[in-house]
Amino acid sequence: MATLAESAGDLQAQIDEIEALSSIYGDEWCVIDEASRIFCIKISGDINTSKWTICLQIILPHDYPSAAPPIYQLNGAWLRGPERVELSNSLEEIYVQNAGECILYLWVERIREFLLEKSQSCDSEGPEARNWTEEEDGEAEEEEEAAAGDLSGGCALRLVMEQFCLETSEDEELPPIKHGEAITDRRSTFQPHLAPVVTPRQVKMVLDKLYENKKIASATHNIYAYRIFCEDKHTFLQDCEDDGETAAGGRLLHLLQILDVRNVMVVVSRWYGGILLGPDRFKHICNCARNILVQEGYTESADESSKAGGKNKKQKSKKAK
Q: Strand pairing partners for 64?
């Protein structure tokens, strides 16, 4: 347990670091909630274009930097599974190499370097490297604005909840992962995956395991959502990820909320076939998720639900007579 002197030292180190970052990055550095030590910064790889950007959201625990790393989240519509894992691993490596020291500046500059490499790589590969934007550009401009609005309002609360429920054991086991039946429409394929999860650490373990599968890692999008019930707090820890399929993660999470499932994570992999599907893509994502939830016993099927409803209505009508 941290001593009073250590706590005071950590707080002063945080104050000094935040002042330095504010001075270095100016308006790019944003204070979301100073009392809760929640901050974010929008990072670009090239000042001439805003295409390759990442929003780094941070919570500073009370024992950072002496004993704990910052709690962070990376947000970028284009930032997909393998690239997200690569960048996260590099940030965690920086923390390990500089344990006990302030590392936010190193993190920001590593992300900026990553974005610059991404920008240069795509420029050298030509127009084909930018094909991932076709569907979003053609179909989802309004959804992008809506998603951006949801993110700005909910990210801080979501991060606080994650910190709130993060008291987990280091020796947690990887939950069993189930794979559902794929749906194919106009050369696009959607496949769901499901795992029971009770901690944020297990969510990361499931994602890491899925990305070990080359086919899943190569999917155009790996959309996911999860809901964990924190019994001692009587609240839900829940989050979602679009992975480039704008607004899809929020719709998937909304489905889990409607079905009132808990302690479960659903990932839907989509391999884009070159033909725009419009709103049908969201229908397939939600149908995939619902099917695997029914398959694994988290909710009843629509047919069973309607039958049960019909029986109840019939019994009530008999009583009325």
A: none
